[in-house]
């Protein structure tokens, strides 16, 4: 299983469940950015979500995603999975509460480590 990880607001995820489809922020493109490594998750969380409450980390099985996935570089030597189109909810196999530490920074959730190896 190839795992894609995505940080989102719990409210967005709950709305997706109600409508049975998830569309992430466009980030000025047609798709939305996800992460594929623990370090990417931490870098994204600490850069864009510092000290934010009410977040969840979606654990996505890329083999079940119906939309097109492209691995594209944000930085020269690092590729991020970029999903073009809506995410079908049956591709999400786990949702983890993603809370910052008291100082506002994030650490990678231990409960996902088993799936990553």
TrEMBL record:
Coiled-coil blocks: none
InterPro entries, sorted: DUF952
Protein name: DUF952 domain-containing protein
Taxonomic source organism: Chroogloeocystis siderophila 5.2 s.c.1
């Amino acid at each position: 299983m190839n795992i894609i990880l995505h940080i989102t607001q719990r409210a967005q995820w709950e709305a997706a469940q109600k409508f049975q489809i998830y569309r992430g922020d466009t980030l000025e493109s047609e798709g939305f950015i996800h992460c594929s490594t623990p370090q990417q998750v931490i870098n994204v969380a600490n850069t864009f979500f510092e000290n934010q409450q009410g977040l969840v980390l979606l654990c996505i099985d890329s083999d079940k995603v119906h939309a097109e996935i492209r691995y594209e570089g944000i930085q020269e030597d690092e590729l991020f999975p970029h999903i073009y189109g809506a995410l079908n909810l049956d591709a999400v196999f786990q949702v983890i509460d993603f809370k910052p530490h008291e100082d506002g920074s994030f650490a990678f959730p231990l409960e996902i480590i088993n799936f990553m190896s």
